[in-house]
Design brief:
Blueprint (H helix, E strand, L loop, with lengths): L1 H19 L5 H4 L2 H5 L8 E16 L5 H7 L6 H4 L7 E19 L2 E28 L10 E29 L4 E36 L2 E7 L4 E2 L6 E25 L2 E12 L6 E14 L1
Antiparallel strand pairs: 1-2, 1-10, 2-3, 3-4, 4-5, 5-6, 5-7, 5-8, 8-9, 9-10
Pfam family, one: OMP_b-brl
InterPro entries: Beta-barrel_OMP, OMP-like, OMP/PagP_B-barrel
Family: Belongs to the Omp25/RopB family.
């Protein structure tokens, strides 16, 4: 019996010594599972790429010819009544786009901040419209005439306008999230577009003067009106045309996107971008761009 206890004690000592010599593995401390639970990707670095997409253009021509009509009716009693005439409406068009981008990512844990510059070329993103409006303006403010005379200005305006967005550059700040091989992001920034814009208007103005006379017949006042013949007003009956080629329009941009790491530094992206430009010759242009692309991060 004494020998049996000596054998058990010897085996126990050998087992303890062997355990003490084993390496300190994470799985023995319960950390191995935690190490596999998080998938991360290094998005930090400089990147570049390019892609293609589809653009829709909404051009607002409602006030496009206002500058021309104000010039035609300058220093006349018709300038104020015609100052805000809307001859045309919004139009829409679609086209393809091609783009290139370069940027820099800075990563802090799961957060990614980026500064990115893009260039986009639009394939014949052009639209045009026309319209007309007629109105009789009676005794406008500032008009001088005899007390019994009514001045009737018959004004007809016919206008056309067109806009073509050629290309644009943007400087965008991005905020992204490290989702492993995926990085969803949002962005906002400044945009500068280059476009051709034209507008024209033709005005036709006739003045008809009606004379009203009153006489007393047998104690009764009888009023009669004599309608005059329309006479052309040459000073305000004219045509004006204006065109600007390669005009620059500043604006802003914002949108959403997602990037996916295909292999090593190679990634694909999909994004939506909204762009709003300031008016050029009273013509406002808004773009909606959808894009796909490929890039490489160093």
């Amino acid at each position: 019996m004494r020998r049996l206890w000596l054998v058990v004690a010897a085996l126990g000592s050998m087992s303890a010594a062997h355990a003490a010599d084993m390496p300190d593995l994470p799985v023995l401390r319960g950390g191995f599972t935690d190490g596999l639970s998080k998938t991360s990707h290094n998005w930090d670095g400089t990147y570049f790429g390019g892609g293609a997409g589809y653009s829709t253009d909404a051009s607002d021509f409602s006030q496009s010819v206002v500058g021309l009509t104000n010039f035609i009716f300058r220093d006349s009693v018709l300038q104020q009544p015609t100052a805000n005439w809307s001859l045309m409406n919004k139009t829409n068009t679609q086209s393809t786009n091609f783009n290139a981008f370069v940027g820099r990512n800075w990563q802090w844990y799961d957060a990614i901040l980026s500064l990115e510059g893009t260039y986009t070329y639009f394939n014949n993103l052009a639209t045009s419209t026309s319209g007309s409006n007629s109105l009789t303006i009676v005794n406008p403010a500032g008009d001088t005439h005899a007390a019994n005379v009514t001045d009737n200005y018959d004004v007809t305006l016919t206008g056309t306008a067109a806009a073509k967005v050629k290309d644009m550059i943007t400087l965008r700040g991005r905020v992204g999230w490290d989702g492993g091989d995926f990085m969803p992001y949002a962005f906002a920034g400044a945009a500068v577009g280059r476009m051709d814009v034209s507008r024209s208007v033709t005005s036709t103005v006739d003045l008809r003067q009606d004379v009203t006379n009153s006489i007393v017949v047998g104690g009764v006042t009888v009023t009669s009106t004599t309608f005059g013949a329309p006479q052309a007003v040459p000073a305000q009956s004219q045509a004006q045309t204006q065109r600007r080629t390669n005009a620059f329009a500043v604006g802003w941009t914002a949108g959403l996107g997602v990037e996916y790491c295909i292999w090593d530094g190679l990634f694909a992206r999909v994004e939506y971008e909204y762009v709003k430009f300031s008016p050029v010759m009273n013509t406002s242009v808004t773009l909606n761009n959808a894009r796909v692309g490929l890039g490489y991060k160093f």
